[in-house]
Amino acid sequence: RLHPIGMAAVVLYGRRRGASKNGENLQHVTVLRKTEWLRIQDELCGVNKEEKRIKEAAKQRENLHLQSQEVVKLWPDTLHGQRLKRLQEKKIRKEIEEEQMRLADLEEAKYQEERRKEIIEKAKTQLYCQTDRVKGLHSALLLTEVLKERDAQIELKQRRKSANIDVDKAFLHMVQTREDEASKQEQEKAMQRKLVRQVAAEDLRNQIKENELLRERQKLESKKDGDEIQRLQALHQLERRMEAERQANQKRSLMQHITNRYLIRATDAQKQEAEEEQRKLFLSTKQKIIKLRKEKEKEEAQTHRDRIINKLTVTQQEQAVSEEQKIAKAVAESEAKQAQQQLEEDEKKAAMLKSISVHRELMRQEKEENDKIERKKAQEALQAKKEADRIFTEKQQLKVKKIREEEREVQDFNAAQMAEKGARLQQLREQEHEFEVKNAELIAEEENRFQQYSQQIINAAAEAQRNVFPLCKAAREGIGGGSGPVFSGVRPSYLVQDRTGAQMPKYVSLATQNIKKLHEAVDIQDAKRRLGFTW
């Protein structure tokens, strides 16, 4: 809200007081100073000069701080300068370390590359050594070493044998001398043993005499002991007989007691048998009485049954007479009822025949109408069929035309496919030819390498004075361990066509080569002239 200010002046500008150009009352218009006007505008616009001033002061301080930092950061004797210097030195050390690590990595990479190449070369060498031909060559080299070692062992054995002959002579002389000395010592010992045996024999004869006297005394003592033993044995036999008689008397008395007990038991058994027979007799008598009682009851029941049957017979005869009368009456009533039903059926039949004739007439008329409708429908169907046949014929013609076009397209497609297939087959043949050429080059290179390696081994073996025949056999031309001729760098094997499957040998000599050359037609014109076909 605006308030009037005391310093404000009222401007009239030649008009009447209190009047304005727009008809407003100028007495209520207030004129403000510029500062007041700006203050009011700021308040209305929400501008805070104090806050703005504070922000400008803070911004100015910030600028001054940045300027002071720019000035101070180049001074080396400040904390910030020292910190920057340490950071710079740390950065330089880090770069130096990174450069050293990079150089070390490069050296490690070079070392690893060299190591990798060495390993690859070693692996290639090992793989090459694992091939059949190289294995065979190494086996032949080992065989040459074995043959050389065997020859050396044979030579060593001969030398040892020749050296052992002289040693055996000296050894035999020494043994003969030792045996003579031993025989003399043995004779002396034998004489000593003979004297010792004579002394021992004399002592033994004296001991035998003493033993005979001792045995005589023992025999006398044994005889005395035998007489005493016989006397004691007779006394013992007498005591045994008396004991046996006493036991026999006891046994007789015991048997008599047992016999009396058996008699008592037999008497008790007879009594029990008698009681059992009386009991069985009582049971049989009782059963007979029960049987007679049942037969009597059965006769009484049969008599009662006969009386009841007689009564029933009389009653049924009376009922039969009354039933015949009832049947006759029922038959008469049934015949009258059937006659009435027959009359009603005749009337119904006549009415039915009349309705049937009427129905037949209606059906004949309806059939005639239906026949007309059917004939009309058949004619319409014939026309529709003719139209359908015409449309079908046109469609078939279009279909045949389309099929011919499709067949033509198929022929063109097949021709293109055949051409493409021929080009592909030609390309495959060319690729196969290139593969065969490359394979032949590889086989030739491998054969050359193998021959060089085998020649080095053969030369080294020859210089070492080894038997080089197995090496030459293993180093012959052609891949494979067969005995056949070489074809395209491969030496195949030819097997026998039987259960053994053994490999056929190769007998190649100058005569066989001449015969092969004679019978093999290298030049057909030469063969014709040789056979006499000249015209």
From TrEMBL:
All residue ranges annotated as the Trichohyalin-plectin-homology domain in the record: 128-468
Supply the InterPro entries for this chain: CFAP210 (IPR039986), TPH_dom (IPR043597)
CC per GO annotation: axonemal microtubule
- The question of whether Coiled coil is a record keyword is answered with yes
Keywords assigned by UniProt? Coiled coil
Coiled coil (UniProt feature): 47-123, 197-230, 282-383, 425-463
Q: What's this protein's name?
A: Cilia and flagella associated protein 210
Specify the species: Neolamprologus brichardi
Source organism phylogeny: Eukaryota, Metazoa, Chordata, Craniata, Vertebrata
